[in-house]
# Entry
Amino acid sequence: MADSTSDASLTRSVARSAQIHADLDVHPERYRMLTGDRPTGHLHLGHYFGSLANRVVLQDKGIDTFVLIADYQVITDRDEVSSIQERVFSLLTDYLSIGIDPTRTTIFTHSQIPALNQLMLPFLSLVTDSELRRNPTVKAEQEATGGRPMSGLMLTYPVHQAADILFCKANVVPVGKDQLPHLEQTRVVARRFDERYGRAGDKSAPVFPAPDALLSDVPNLLGTDGQKMSKSKGNTIELRMSADDTAKVLRKAVTDSDRRITYDPVGRPEVSNLVQLAALTTGRDPHTIAEEIGDGGSGTLKKLVTESVNEYFAPIRARRAELEADQGHLRDVLADGNARANAVAEATLAEVREAMQMVYG
# Structure
């Protein structure tokens, strides 16, 4: 019964996402999008092709976009915080270098938006301990700790995520299918707030919209070792890498013993991963690329991938170097984004207080 319910929910989410995608080109003004990253490491090609490039596309369509650098979420599951500031600015530099425009997209950090974080208090009253523990991220953390006590911030991570989305009243959130339970928790919080506390100002509408998932078929790039691409595994090609560093990493990429190159993601995942990377950076079909290389072997494939990746990212890396050299500009961009996010958060918190009848002056 649970599986059928889950399947039905996924079907509805996919259908709703398709409707939104169709409407985005016609009515982008109807949508506000929230997305973001944790500054736990440097962004890599998996991030770029999985989400970053699409953010630029959606921004350029005219969607009101908020991008969160989730610095508070770093401390949910780790003690070391000395590198957070450096990584926050590294993320910001990556964002700007790929084409995220701070005049059209609000880029901000958790720690600088007090009103966003204050929403956690009423939101926590709307969820139960058992609901939080059923959240996929929380469950995975429990399993990974090997019995070590989990921090309160980790346990309440789903509610913090709800505050991220609802403070700016985002109505679309780009997610993968595996992240749908996270978004459903946010929808539950929005609905329960309306049911318990009512509405503010315009009594015909709830304080918070129920956000929808914006699903997309993103390429699943593997790491250079053939495993899941991960910052912690050291198997990534970072956006900040030089052309020479990229070449060194790709020379060590895992392939197999068959000299003939084919595109078979199931049977030959490592080779196919490199073919796919060449396809993504040249805009060509992966099957065609594999056929053209033929018996050229992994050496020819790696040479093609290295050249195509370096050519594709050359202008991005040049722009990144310029940005990195102007720390004052980066700080100004972040300060401006934080100020804009603060104004939105304060307005939302005022509505929340009115709905909860907690306005005293």
Remarks:
- Residues 118 and 268 are 49 Å apart (CA to CA).
- The two ends are 51 Å apart (CA to CA).
- Strands lie at 32-37, 64-69, 105-109, 172-174, 212-214.
